[in-house]
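S.,

As promised, the N-acetylmannosamine-6-phosphate run. Input:
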Amino acid sequence: MKENLLAAIRGGLVVSCQAAAGLPLHGPTFMAAMARSVAPAGAVGIRANGVADVRAIRSVVTLPLIGLWKDGDTGVYITPTAGHARAVAEAGADVVAVDGTLRPRPDGRGFADTVAAVHELGRLVMADVATVDEGLAAEQAGADLVSTTLSGYTGGPVPTGPDLDLVAELAKRLAVPLVAEGRIASPEQARRALEAGAWSVVVGSAITAPQTITARFVDALAAR
Ligand SMILES: CC(=O)N[C@H](C=O)[C@@H](O)[C@H](O)[C@H](O)COP(=O)(O)O
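Predicted complex:
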């Protein structure tokens, strides 16, 4: 199963279908529609947040599904405990995305605990990291894939573009697949991420967040 899933997403585009609470598109109905919209266009996988969205998307698409549970928005908030991870797996995720940074977790336990819980359920773990050291540590702890998701989000100003240097370095040093994710805003950047060695590319806001896409156009017009 693991080999099949990894082969299915290799070289392709995973679309992150997420809308935070408070946004007009928040909720499983809209996110399932988003997943149904991108699947026939050639997406090789879907990434989704929350038990309700994961369950709804699982019921409408057969693509590999990467689930997570964002609990809060500071510190370790992406699937912060083994309990969160189990719930996401049981909702139908094939892969559970988990914060793989070396920061303290809300329950004081380690990343490896969550890896064990997910593996017990027969699912894979994607470690969301921000640095090379975190990626290497996550692999040692049993992560099946590593993603650059959190680069730029663990302190300091958020950069404008994707961290392709981190993509290249981790792709070179990891034995497990390295996924490029975070601020990939164009097809060219997605292609460059693959050229840097990424196994797959995850794109969210540039495809599924109309407020972000609209603001980019508006800013371009205002800058004339
Ligand atoms: C940092 C964090 O919490 N990232 C989240 C992880 O699931 C999502 O908010 C992002 O949209 C996703 O990573 C895709 O990235 P982008 O939307 O930049 O293509």
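The chain has a mean pLDDT of 98. The radius of gyration is 16 Å.

- D.
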